[in-house]
Design brief:
By secondary structure, the protein is an alpha+beta fold. Helix content is 36%, strand content 23%. The protein is built from six helices and seven strands. The strands form two sheets. Strands 4-3-2-1-5 form a five-stranded antiparallel beta sheet. It has a two-stranded antiparallel ribbon with strand order 6-7.
Length: 151
Amino acid sequence: MICRAVYTIRKVNPAEQRLIRETLQQAKQRILLQQLQDGFPTFRHYGIDLGDGTVVHFSGKMHHIHADAWVQRTSCAQFCRGGTVFPACEICFAFLPEEVAWRALSQVGGNFGGYHFLCNNCEHFVNWCACGRRISRQVMLRDGFGEDIED
């Protein structure tokens, strides 16, 4: 079985930017907020490519940053929304591909504990599937924010 972690680069739309700005101001996350205000409104959206043309990912209706997010299995085209899919080489697999796929598929339809773009996002989900740890390097590298939680 082919199973790999992937990502696509997404732009943050104005409604998402407002939501992020409000949340970051409340959490006093100055560096990430400054990046957004300086004109770098992009992020990586992660998923597990099952090798059959589908990707399991943690996403919502509002492009990926929204409280209504759930784990879903979609086509690769729906996952990347016209963008490019890249291998997420920084994701370390502690489980065999079959186990990673099973872990991802076991969460489809659920909310994975509730979405939060700093504390429980799509990268947290992919890392949990791959190695059992909820961690987001893009959040940690941008702001020193985030926890490494083992399940």
